[in-house]
């Protein structure tokens, strides 16, 4: 059963219908791509956090005891061991990498050109 009057269905040509289908498919593809990029970004964040946890565990195992992170890192810096200092440097570098990844994921994106084209076509069809 049709809800809209028949004369409204005849007002849209086949070319316009095809164009609307193409734009709709393109918009869905862009949304899927954005979701994929978000999923990859979240995976990267989790991976970086796991790396930091693993480096902390390596430092604790090298020292031989578990301490709160600030005390453990301070004690690791006091020990004269190059391998331990390399782990501490890696541990110190990871928060900056995590922060940069979060900033990249959360930065505002400009309006997509697909959305702008879709709006222009919609306005043209309405007028």
Quick structural gist:
This protein is mainly alpha-helical. The chain has helices at residues 6-10, 14-63, 69-78, 82-106, 113-126. The chain has a domain at 40-107.
End-to-end Cα distance, whole Å, is 27 Å
Q: What proportion strand?
A: under 5%
Oligomer: single chain
Uncertain runs are none
Gross morphology is rod-shaped
Helices and strands, in N-to-C order?
A: HHHHH
| Count of discrete alpha- or pi-helical segments spanning 4 or more residues | 5
Rg calc:
27 Å
Estimate percent helicity.
over 70%
Give the biggest beta sheet. none
Kindly report the average pLDDT value. Answer: 82
Which structural class is indicated by helix and strand composition? mainly alpha
Compute the number of strand runs.
0
Description:
The chain has 127 residues and is mainly α. The protein has a domain at 40-107. The protein has helices at 6-10, 14-63, 69-78, 82-106, 113-126. The two termini are 27 Å apart. The model has no long low-confidence stretch (mean pLDDT 82).
SSE layout:
Layout: H1 6-10, H2 14-63, H3 69-78, H4 82-106, H5 113-126
Key phrases:
127 residues; mainly alpha
